[in-house]
Known about the structure:
Blueprint: H1 9-25, E1 31-32, H2 45-54, E2 60-63, H3 68-78, E3 81-82, E4 91-94, E5 119-123, E6 127-135, E7 143-147, H4 152-163, E8 170-174, E9 178-182, E10 187-190
Parallel strand pairs: 2-3, 2-4, 4-5, 5-8
Antiparallel strand pairs: 1-9, 6-7, 6-10, 8-9
Helix pairs in contact: 1-2
Amino acid sequence: MLQPQFDKPVHDAQCTFRTVLAALSEPLAPLTLPVLPPAPVGLLPGTAAVLLTVLDQEVSLFSANLPADAGEWLRFHTGVRLIDSATDADFVLVHDGETLPALASLKAGEAAYPDRSATVIVETAAFGTDQVEGRGPGFAAARRFGASSLTAEFWADWTANHARFPLGVDVLLVSADAVAGLPRTTQVTLSIDENRREPVEGKADGAQAPEPTRVGEDAEHRPTPPSTGAAGFPRQEV
């Protein structure tokens, strides 16, 4: 028997959609997801919420190790097409601990249609502040960020992805109950220990993992639309 989805599918998906857009508008600032559905084995509750929101029958999803029951759950509730090639997918799901595909191998859009690109959804056990500093649209000031599932190799790959703008891919990082956006407009530099002037390998002294906030919780949180939409996002009335 298939797991149920959102208790109030339309309302809950719209609330989650707003949070996903806010996460892309204010990059690398984790936001608490407003609703968590019952998740099938193989998906974090946060991932299940995001997938129920962004997938539909017009888009495709690739996941290297998606359990069959989770795949059936997604097909039943969203109509998504599950495909065997990451290079052709509109959405690529990477579970925590899996190797991320090379970003340059994924759909990057076209000069006339940069939004026809892939969105990579990466599961992570925890967010932190120890890996990079981000700058660009959506940043009032540089913001420190880290995610336990990301490596230095990923951030090097991300720098090359950013350099391809307006082409490239966008990334959503999802924990059990929160989401952080990483649109292609975001420039990152490795976090630096001021005493050693070299990339920090462990957690910076005194750095605390950011507490995810809710959309509208901060009076100064006024997200602006991302400059390039993530491919395949459904048109929802928000």
